[in-house]
Amino acid sequence: MSGAAQAAGRQRAALLADALAGLTAPRKTLPCKWLYDAEGARLFEAITRLPEYYPTRTETAILRGGCAAEAARLAGPGAAVVEFGSGSAEKVAILLAALAAPAAYVPVDIAPDWLGAAAARVAADWPGLAVLPVVADFTRPFALPAGLPAKAPRLGFFPGSTIGNFDPAGAEAFLAMARRVLGEGARLLIGADLVKDPAVLEAAYDDAAGVTARFNLNLLARLNRECGADFDLSAFRHQAVWNPREERVEMHLVSLRPQAVSLAGRRIGFAAGETIHTENSHKYRPEGFARLCARGGWDAERCWTDPARLFSVWLLRAG
Ligand code: AVI
């Protein structure tokens, strides 16, 4: 069996183990990382262009409107940029263009195909830049590539408010891990979505064109494709709700009727209205986000927002 086939087999086994654990729990859940197979990644890209989904365009405008330039000035010349969960690596172009003679770009992502394609694009656009991709789960400690110039100032990049998809303990653990990986004197440029009118938030996660609904339901289609489950997708509907106590948008899949689904020889029963909780997207207040960063070992050096205060981008300095 090829290495790629073995990796795919391991992924399927991990997906099945998570699905069996999550769907037999008293409150059914599925980890949001499984939303991103090839189809999920394509749908997420479409989400980022939706009129209701303000985070991507707002963060891009903040980066372009002086934030990237100021972060680049503070990071200094010859910086090595390490992007956590680089995906399509689009926003990093704004940062690389602002930096004086960046020494290296290290995109870190768990999906090797995606990573290879994004790394090749950046390498083609930035001749002379050392592009050193790392295939790794960026939520766990990983080693920086040996070829990274030892003296280059380290600048982490974690845009998109992906930190909001961790629970608070996971977010703190991620920040502490990033601090360890990047080392003394490092900086981290990170996007954090802000608490706002629940109607704006719920529309961003339940768009009129139904793209986010397809993104969420694709998780059941993925379980059918990869784990031989028999979910009837027409018997579930997408739901996005603001949880004011936890200050997060929750995505659920709601069972429209009593039903049973089979998965790896197990029958999993659903009551009408019962949900599978598939994602949390935490929103922050600036003071709370600065406190979270401090607990993870980072001092807030700068914070930028847009005029409507929808989104924030922070430059953190290793404390
Ligand atoms: C990747 N992440 C930051 C997105 C978010 O906004 O939480 C994922 C997403 N889920 C639904 N729409 C977008």
Question: Overview of this structure, please?
Answer:
- 39% of the residues lie in helices and 24% in strands.
- It has two domains: 3-30 and 209-282, no CATH class; 54-196 and 284-318, Vaccinia Virus protein VP39 (Rossmann fold), CATH 3.40.50.
- The model has no long low-confidence stretch (mean pLDDT 96).
- Helix 3 (54-75) packs parallel to helix 4 (92-98).
- It is built from nine helices and 13 strands.
- The protein has 319 residues and is of the alpha/beta class.
- The strands form three sheets. Strands 1, 2, 3, 4, 5, 6, 12 and 13 form an eight-stranded mixed beta sheet that branches. A three-stranded antiparallel beta sheet has the order 7-8-11.
- The termini are far apart.
- Strand 5 (154-158), helix 6 (168-182) and strand 6 form a beta-alpha-beta unit.
- The chain has helices at residues 3-23, 38-47, 54-75, 92-98, 112-125, 168-182, 198-204, 211-227, 286-295, and strands at 80-84, 104-109, 130-131, 134-135, 154-158, 187-193, 236-243, 248-255, 259-263, 266-270, 275-282, 298-305, 311-318.
- The structure holds N,N-dimethyl-L-histidine.
- Residues 47, 55, 160-162, 164-165, 205, 212, 279, 281 line the site of N,N-dimethyl-L-histidine (AVI).
- Pfam families: Methyltransf_33.
- It comes from Caldovatus sediminis.
- Keywords: Methyltransferase, Transferase.
- This is Dimethylhistidine N-methyltransferase.
- Residues 17-317 form the Histidine-specific methyltransferase SAM-dependent domain.
